[in-house]
Write a structure and sequence with these properties.
By secondary structure, this protein is mainly α. The chain folds into two domains: 70 residues; 28 residues. The chain is 80% helix and 0% strand. The protein contains six helices and no strands. Helix 1 packs parallel to helix 4 and helix 2 packs across helix 4.
Length: 129
C-alpha cells in the first residue's frame, strides 16, 4: 500500500483508530509512541517526507488515544492470551462439573436397613443350626 493511500486512510478513519488504540494498555501505547519517534528520526535522516508525514499522523493519533483513554477511564481490552486462558478455565470448570455429576450417578446407593431387621436376620440364621 502506498504511503499516500495510508495517509488518506489514517485521516479518513482517524476517530476509529483512536478509539481502537484507546482500548490498549497505556504501556503498549507508550511503546508505540516510542517506536514512532524512532521511525520519525530515521525518516528525517533519510529525508523521506512522505513517511515522516504518515508517522506524524500516527504520533498524533497515539497521543490522542492516550488522552481519550485517560479522560474517559477506558478499560484495557483483554489480549488474546487472557481470552484463551479464560476459555480454558471455563472448559476445565465445566469438565469438573460433568465429572462430579458422573461420579455421583455411578456410585452405588447403599440402603441401610433398620437394626431391628438385621437382628431378626441374624436370629433366623442361628435357628438353622
Amino acid at each position: 500500500m502506498s504511503i499516500a493511500i495510508r495517509i488518506k486512510d489514517c485521516i479518513d478513519n482517524h476517530e476509529e483508530y483512536v478509539a481502537i488504540m484507546a482500548t490498549l494498555p497505556d504501556k503498549e501505547l507508550a511503546k508505540k509512541l516510542e517506536l514512532v519517534h524512532i521511525q520519525m528520526e530515521i525518516a528525517d535522516q533519510k529525508k523521506n517526507t512522505a513517511s515522516l508525514e504518515l508517522l506524524e499522523i500516527w504520533h498524533h493519533q497515539i497521543i490522542e488515544a492516550r488522552i481519550y483513554k485517560g479522560e474517559n477511564e477506558i478499560a484495557d481490552a483483554p489480549n488474546e492470551i487472557e481470552l484463551a486462558i479464560a476459555d480454558i478455565e471455563t472448559f476445565v470448570a465445566k469438565a469438573e462439573q460433568r465429572q462430579d455429576a458422573l461420579t455421583e450417578s455411578t456410585q452405588p446407593v447403599q440402603q441401610s436397613r433398620p437394626k431391628v431387621q438385621q437382628q431378626q436376620d441374624n436370629d433366623s440364621q442361628l435357628s438353622l443350626f
